[in-house]
Design a protein that fits this description.
Strand order of the largest sheet: 2-9-7-11-12-5
CATH architecture of the largest domain: Sandwich
Structural class: mainly beta
Distance between the termini: 34 Å
Strand content: over 45%
CATH superfamily of the largest domain: Immunoglobulins
Number of helices: 3
CATH topology of the largest domain: Immunoglobulin-like
Largest sheet: 6 strands, mixed
């Protein structure tokens, strides 16, 4: 950091006094007293320090490195120093916003968008570029941070920068590109966004990616579903291939809508007895950009008996805790063979206390069944506590002559719970004509599978709000335990004034429907700051959240001085807040923006409150920061996210589809 500061002071000093009129002098500006290493440069043009014409080619100064080694072989043009009393280093950047559009995830797909840095001054401009985190890069541009290399552009010349968008996750990614230079008004910013198009395929049932058909009689078939969800924003196809007898899977391919699910049917059956068979059904992602898992383990054994059990699978599915009627499953054991069969035992093994089994009609074992005879029983599951039978793997075991039939028992008792974050949208201020998009997330914080309805958005008189479903894209939709659904809310206005609205979101859980007020003030003059507050919800202690954005924009027709003055904590300490830049001072030209990244990294359990302190022409402004440090292994996601994390691939759809706060002019920018 210190070396970079010294480097920039030297560059600026040299630019002002004309020391960069030769390549050697330019090297001395960037390298200090260290002797420059041997140069391997394809072309060097000395434009002199006078008022003559110069070559307009882009210039790259790679420096010689602190070890005196070789430098980059890029062409270098000495643009002169502006010692003729000119304007010095001055740049214009256009366009100031880039939209990469929608790009398919995977298969080498990408989109390039170009902005141009133009030197409108009379002396050379040196600059470095910082790209937003995420799926953005600039191949072939040597001065991308954190490299110490600086690009140089001569007076009257232009430097095009192609920024590549290669999405790895579905949904919108957005951020700001920063150009730090020795020119007046530095740093300059360019907004960029792009939409990743695609879905990943995730098996949500069976949750452990394995099916145990148990031990079944010959000449019968046991079937189980394989449910696959599409996590993302694109319709996908997924294939399945069976491993051969005694297993089968149908159909060979399924189509899954974005945010929805579909299923294969796996089965086991054989006319002859077998020992235990353990194989795998292969899954292929086809048009999905990823699939998890690649296979489903299957196990089955065929017993040499024709005594059947109906039904041949025992799944209690999902029942809410405290349900008035406890779920039960009746079953019938029948002799379908041509000779009598003796039922020696019927027992439930591995069962928790909440699961019980009873034979009906006072049956005493052993019991011989003639052809066509049967006995009945019932299994019951109480609802007084949460339970997942898959963890204890209970089985109904039936002894028949010298064989044994085995039927796994599955099901859950669950508690519905959900919350929304943030509970209100305080979007602060924005310049008239800017678009603001904020995210609201609903989190399934219970153990039950929920169904969420499409949010309803009501704008107050004189306000205009639009709803932007992100994940899922369509409703109603399932929301699995621990997962998140996200929608965008976008107020818009062509005139100044306060705007307000209300989003109502229903789900089959207590406290529903959730009502979230939203507010934003559009201004024509002054400096806009959005949002007015950031709520990080909960983050595990000693981990760091995704980075959120605070955006300052100059709505005036004249420049404004803005500062970042650090964080003051009223609860929880300042160390929990990671702000970048933590300290800064810069002049924003009209409509220019300063983007500040904020992350929450709690070091202890409990509630944290802090104020991000900002300065606007000497006046103090604040943005409230809140979050809770938790010790549980569970993360929740808030809004304004400019990056994202991926929840467990086994848990359905993620999806805090994290989208940056987007502030952009409503004109269509020029595309590269």
């Amino acid at each position: 950091m210190m070396r970079n500061a010294i480097l920039w002071r030297r560059i600026l000093s040299c630019a002002l006094v004309g020391a960069a009129s030769t390549i050697a002098a330019l090297a001395s500006c960037t390298e200090g007293s260290a002797p420059p290493g041997p140069a391997r440069r394809a072309a060097v043009a000395d434009a002199g320090s006078g008022s003559g014409t110069v070559d307009a080619s882009p210039v790259v100064d790679a420096g010689s490195g602190s070890d005196g080694g070789t430098v980059d072989a890029s062409p270098i043009v000495d643009a002169g120093s502006g010692s003729d009393g000119g304007t010095g280093p001055t740049i214009a950047v256009a366009p100031t916003s880039l939209h990469a559009g929608s790009v398919e995830i995977g298969a080498g797909m990408f989109a390039d968008s170009t902005f141009t840095i133009m030197n409108t001054g009379t002396s050379a401009v040196m600059f470095g570029i910082t790209l937003p985190s995420g799926p953005f890069s600039a191949p072939g541009v040597p001065c991308i941070e954190p490299t110490p290399t600086r690009c140089v552009v001569a007076p009257g010349a232009s430097f095009p920068v192609a920024v590549r968008f290669i999405p790895t996750l579905p949904g919108v990614s957005a951020g700001s590109i920063t150009i730090a230079s020795n020119a007046a008004g530095s740093p300059h910013t360019v907004d960029i966004d792009g939409n990743g198009l695609g879905s990943r395929a995730v098996v949500i049932d069976p949750a452990d990616h394995a099916i145990d058909f148990g031990t079944i009689p010959r000449n019968s078939t046991a079937s189980r579903p394989i449910v696959v969800a599409a996590i993302g924003n694109k319709m996908i196809s997924v294939g399945a291939t069976g491993p051969g007898a005694p297993f089968a899977v149908t159909p060979p391919m399924i189509a899954i809508p974005p945010g929805g699910s579909n299923m294969f049917t796996a089965s086991c059956g054989s006319p002859t007895a077998t020992g235990p068979v353990n194989l795998a059904i292969a899954l292929s992602r086809m048009t999905a950009y990823e699939i998890d898992p690649l296979s489903i383990d299957v196990r089955c054994e065929i017993a040499n008996t024709q005594v059947t059990v109906d039904p041949n699978q025992f799944d209690f599915d999902e029942t809410r805790k405290g349900a008035a009627m406890a779920p039960s499953r009746s079953f019938t054991i029948s002799n379908q063979g041509p000779v009598p069969a003796t039922i020696k035992s019927v027992e439930l093994t591995g069962a928790p206390a909440s699961l019980s089994m009873t034979l009906l009609g006072g049956v005493i074992l052993p019991r011989t069944l003639a052809t066509g005879d049967s006995i009945t029983g019932r299994m019951s599951l109480t609802t007084d506590e949460d339970i997942d039978l898959g963890r204890s793997s209970p089985k109904l075991r039936i002894g028949v002559d010298d064989e044994q039939l085995v039927y796994p028992v599955t099901g859950k008792i669950t508690t519905p719970a959900a919350y929304v974050t943030p509970e209100k949208l305080e979007l602060g201020t924005a310049c008239v004509g800017s678009d603001v998009t904020a995210m609201i997330s609903m989190v399934n914080s219970g153990t039950a599978r929920l169904t969420i309805e499409r949010p309803q958005l009501e704008s107050q008189t004189g306000s205009s709000f639009t709803l932007q479903p992100q994940s899922p894209p369509t409703y109603p939709a399932p929301l699995l335990a621990g997962m998140t659904a996200t929608v965008g809310v976008s107020p818009a206005a062509d005139s100044p004034g306060a705007r307000s609205g209300t989003l109502t979101w229903a789900v089959d859980a207590p406290r529903s429907p959730f009502v979230i007020p939203a507010s934003l003030e559009f201004i024509e003059t002054g400096t806009a700051i959005s949002p007015a507050s950031l709520n990080f919800s909960t983050v595990k202690v000693d981990e760091i959240s995704i980075r959120y954005l605070v955006v300052l924009q100059n709505c005036n027709t004249v420049p404004v001085l803005v500062t970042v003055d650090g964080v003051t904590a009223s609860r929880g300490g300042t160390a929990a807040w990671k702000v970048e830049p933590s300290q800064d001072s810069r002049t924003l030209a009209p409509q220019d923006k300063l983007t500040i990244g904020v992350a929450f990294a709690p070091r202890r359990h409990g509630h944290h409150v802090a104020q991000l302190r900002l300065g606007v022409d000497g006046d103090t402004r604040t943005v409230t920061l809140e979050g809770d440090g938790i010790d549980l292994d569970f993360k929740r996601t808030s809004f304004y996210a400019c990056g994202c994390t991926t929840p467990s691939a086994r848990a359905g759809w993620p999806i805090a589809l994290a989208v940056a706060l987007a502030l952009r002019r409503r004109r269509r920018p020029r595309r590269a």
